[in-house]
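Write out this protein's structure.
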Amino acid sequence: MLVETMIIKKVETSIVTSLDVAETFEKEHKRVLQDIRNLGCSEEFGQHNFVLSSYTSIQNKKQPMYCMTRDGFTLLVMGYTGEKAMKFKEGYIRQFNAMEKVLLGKIRERDKGIAVRQALTNALKESQENERMHGHAYSTYTDMVYRTLFGRTAKQLREEKGLSTKDNLRDFLTEEELKAVQSKEMLVSGLIDCGWGYSQIRDFLKTSLRIC
């Protein structure tokens, strides 16, 4: 059993795949696909809870599968009966609960991050760094923070995670990573307010990282 996350309607959501459901409940995958298609749920419910995707088979062919939310999973397996099936259902529900707890933590950190980023943006504007860097101060300082913490720029992290420029990179960071980014951004904002420049802050972050 494996509960994962994916972005659905611009929201990071806990999901499980039809492939995993088939393996766990010991059913043919084509049977699970048929069960999903025969649910008879409304179009709106289907769009929000079942996302048609694909996987590569051992024959190296693309095959259809569905990614489903907790609600979609619940509706699908409602008809799967027996003692063994009940244990599997309970196991999935525990995983969904655990994953949703993680996502709630990330949401809280993302909300905090909005205020932190606004403070950094304001500090850069007031220091005229943005003007000096021709409008690229925020991205330059953000890359400095990412390099300090992860050893990569935002672009490199996107490539590593397989993200497009439309994806918000911070949606794909863990709660702990978000906390670390916010901590460094708060520090950078304070140093900018004290009149420090880019080179001074960069060298200070490198030194503080070595000390830690």
